[in-house]
């Protein structure tokens, strides 16, 4: 599932590609991906423009010139492609937004959605999300308060969007490894020094992942050299049995409440 770095990569690239461009039409092949009737969706988009693209947690917010907001959550298996009809991957699309000769294809929206809301509705829908970990106003003291809000282990806390927003299976493991702390540790067991290591790890890992385009291996457009470059840089996620980059011991894969969890039992404590 795309997490904060993947959605931030999409935001930055799509801002350059489609912001301000006239929307010339749309197609909907899966009405369940929307929260409005397809005809109404297409009518409201046609002749409109996307004036700004924001990210909140794992969501993208496409602000329309007319005042509405398209709220996107890709969920498991969802991704996007921008290009001409000839360039489009041979994959089923659920929604397509046309920008003249080029189109934004939404692929794999079986669990995800592209909903149309007013801005107050979006604010209400996202109000239960936890703090944005990369917000410059998010301090170590605030992070310590967040740690006190949960009684579970690090893995389950990190993937809980009311704890910190935007982190999921991959980056929860990468952050814990970077900090040298087992993802199975209870939050209450962390010393202040470990809390600080974890706080620094959150920022370092997420910023590095954004710099290298996240881990999704599907390019956003033909010639996209950024999207997915972090996949090869993952230190533990999906690396079961491989030698730890720090100590050489084989990495372990475990299940934590039905979630995959990767770590080094030797150098994470």
UniProtKB/TrEMBL annotation:
Stored NCBIfam families: PRK01103.1 (NF002211)
Originating species: Paenibacillus phytorum
User: What InterPro entries does its record include?
Assistant: FPG_cat, FPG_Glyclase, FPG_N, H2TH_FPG, Ribosomal_uS13-like_H2TH, Znf_DNA_glyclase/AP_lyase, Znf_FPG/IleRS
Name assigned to this protein: Formamidopyrimidine-DNA glycosylase
Q: Which Pfam families match?
A: Fapy_DNA_glyco, H2TH, zf-FPG_IleRS
Which keywords fit this entry according to its UniProt record? DNA damage, DNA repair, DNA-binding, Glycosidase, Hydrolase, Lyase, Metal-binding, Multifunctional enzyme, Zinc, Zinc-finger
FPG-type domain spans which residues?
235-269
* Residue ranges of every copy of the Formamidopyrimidine-DNA glycosylase catalytic domain listed in the record: 2-165
Q: Which cofactor does it need?
A: Zn(2+)
What EC identifiers does the entry list? 3.2.2.23, 4.2.99.18
Q: Which family does it belong to?
A: Belongs to the FPG family.
Q: GO MF annotations for this entry?
A: class I DNA-(apurinic or apyrimidinic site) endonuclease activity; oxidized purine nucleobase lesion DNA N-glycosylase activity
Q: Does the keyword Ribonucleoprotein apply?
A: no
Reaction it catalyzes: 2'-deoxyribonucleotide-(2'-deoxyribose 5'-phosphate)-2'-deoxyribonucleotide-DNA = a 3'-end 2'-deoxyribonucleotide-(2,3-dehydro-2,3-deoxyribose 5'-phosphate)-DNA + a 5'-end 5'-phospho-2'-deoxyribonucleoside-DNA + H(+); Hydrolysis of DNA containing ring-opened 7-methylguanine residues, releasing 2,6-diamino-4-hydroxy-5-(N-methyl)formamidopyrimidine
Question: Quaternary structure?
Answer: Monomer.
């Amino acid at each position: 599932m795309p997490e904060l770095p993947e959605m931030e990569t999409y935001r930055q690239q799509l801002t350059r590609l489609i912001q301000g461009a006239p929307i010339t039409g749309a197609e909907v092949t899966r009405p369940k991906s929307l929260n409005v009737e397809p005809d109404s969706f297409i009518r409201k988009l046609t002749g409109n423009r996307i004036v700004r693209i924001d990210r909140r947690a794992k969501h993208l917010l496409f602000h329309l010139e007319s005042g509405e907001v398209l709220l996107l959550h890709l969920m498991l298996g969802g991704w996007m492609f921008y290009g001409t009809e000839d360039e489009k991957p041979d994959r089923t699309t659920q929604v397509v937004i046309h920008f003249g000769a080029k189109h934004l294809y939404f692929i794999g929206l079986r669990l995800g959605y592209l909903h149309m809301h007013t801005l107050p509705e979006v604010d209400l829908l996202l109000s239960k999300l936890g703090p944005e970990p990369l917000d410059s106003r998010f301090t170590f003291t605030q992070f310590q308060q967040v740690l006190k809000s949960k009684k579970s282990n690090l893995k389950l806390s990190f993937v809980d969007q009311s704890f910190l927003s935007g982190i999921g299976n991959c980056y929860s493991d990468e952050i814990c490894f970077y900090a040298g702390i087992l993802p199975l540790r209870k939050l209450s067991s962390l010393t202040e020094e470990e809390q600080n290591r974890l706080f620094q790890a959150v920022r370092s890992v997420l910023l590095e992942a954004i710099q290298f385009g996240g881990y999704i291996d599907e390019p956003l457009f033909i010639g996209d050299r950024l999207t997915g470059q972090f996949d090869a840089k993952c230190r533990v996620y999906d690396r079961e049995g491989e030698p730890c980059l720090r100590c050489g011991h084989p990495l372990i894969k475990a299940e934590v409440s039905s979630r995959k969890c990767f770590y080094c039992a030797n150098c994470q404590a």
